[in-house]
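Example 9 (inverse folding). The structure is encoded as follows.
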């Protein structure tokens, strides 16, 4: 059934793409995964925006990523598709979405930015009409071949070899996007050192401060305790203990944020902190673009290894990130510095894909609250960052 949903190329693969005619081309960029994945893709997207300025670009992404895409790339057309729910159900896309994608005026070039593609991802790319389609080779290991879309070589005209990850200290997702940038802009030296990058206008910041004044008027600690699944979250009681230890040494207002789905962590944390401070809980009150602006305002962010962490890193905002070993080395850690710290309890089972062999994720939950508080104190006392 999955194969029947795919629109395969009718003829032979097209020859090498012409990379000298950007301004005369209609280009489709496809990135249909999560918020954090999209932020990491700005490694490539920002270079593409600057080097292919003036080209007619349409970015296909899933909800709610379009909010941040429009914020960062206002000159591009952004088309959102429904978010993936479950791997099997997502194959049987609703008819209106499929028809909408297929009805696009043919693009000159389509670039699929995701290396870890499942059946749904490649099916989406197959439905969007384009003269030439390019992607990285599928990075899923053979042991997970069941998630792959069959015969991708009949969808894409060119499948670029994956980077050689061996011995590199750079996480895989960033390496993938650097490789794409080098392919399209081979004479650009910055490709090999490019990192994710986001920007927020002063007007966006001022609007947010005015909306929640006086709570956001001065420095504050931003805490984003939620993650995409509970296994990736630090226990709320332990998180509150770490914040209490910080507040004993340094008084700082606490702001809690996240999406509506993060209520399982944001609400209990707000209650737990009421004894020592009056935290401002903005969870569920901001759209994604406003959440990016909120992170840009904070002198320090405490979060899990999730979209919040990647947004902070791409903005250059100091952060302490509690991370685990499930996908260690694929999405994180990156942007490590004196002001950006990834905390983890190293274990030999790293790379488990969150199929934990213990009764709880020791790589996350065995990080001591005192270690979290100590790292936050050092960052906050540094005080080197001022609002831009």
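The amino acid assigned to each position is listed next.
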């Amino acid at each position: 059934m999955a194969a029947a949903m795919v629109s395969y190329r009718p003829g032979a693969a097209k020859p090498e793409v012409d990379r000298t005619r950007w301004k005369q081309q209609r280009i489709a960029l496809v990135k249909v995964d999560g918020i954090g994945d999209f932020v990491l893709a700005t490694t490539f997207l920002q270079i593409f925006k600057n080097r292919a300025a003036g080209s007619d670009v349409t970015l296909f992404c899933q909800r709610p990523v379009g909010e941040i895409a429009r914020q960062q790339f206002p000159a591009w057309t952004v088309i959102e598709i429904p978010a993936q729910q479950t791997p099997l159900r997502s194959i049987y896309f609703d008819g209106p979405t499929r028809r909408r994608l297929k009805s696009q005026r043919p693009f000159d070039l389509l670039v699929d930015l995701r290396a870890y593609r499942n059946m749904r991802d490649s099916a989406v790319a197959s439905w969007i009409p384009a003269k030439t389609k390019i992607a990285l080779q599928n990075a899923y290991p053979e042991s997970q071949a069941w998630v792959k879309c069959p015969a991708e070589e009949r969808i894409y005209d060119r499948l670029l070899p994956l980077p050689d990850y061996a011995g590199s200290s750079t996480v895989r997702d960033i390496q993938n996007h650097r490789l794409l940038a080098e392919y399209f802009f081979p004479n650009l030296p910055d490709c090999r050192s490019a990192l994710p990058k986001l920007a927020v206008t002063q007007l966006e910041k001022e609007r947010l401060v005015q909306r929640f004044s006086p709570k956001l008027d001065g420095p504050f600690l931003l805490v984003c305790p939620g993650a995409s699944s509970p296994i990736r979250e630090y226990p709320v009681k332990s998180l509150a203990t770490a914040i209490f230890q910080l507040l004993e040494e340094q008084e700082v207002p606490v702001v809690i944020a996240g999406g509506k789905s993060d209520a399982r962590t944001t609400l209990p944390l707000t209650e737990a902190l009421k004894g020592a401070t009056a935290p401002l809980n903005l969870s569920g009150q901001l759209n994604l673009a406003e959440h990016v602006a909120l992170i840009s305002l904070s002198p320090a962010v405490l979060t899990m290894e999730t979209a919040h962490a990647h947004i902070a890193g791409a903005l250059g905002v100091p952060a302490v990130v509690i991370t685990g070993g499930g996908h260690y080395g694929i999405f994180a850690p990156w942007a490590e510095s004196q002001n950006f710290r990834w905390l983890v309890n190293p274990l030999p089972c790293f790379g488990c894909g969150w199929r934990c062999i213990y009764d709880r994720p020791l790589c996350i939950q065995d990080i001591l609250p005192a270690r979290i508080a100590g790292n936050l104190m050092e960052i906050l006392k540094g005080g080197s960052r001022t609002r831009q």
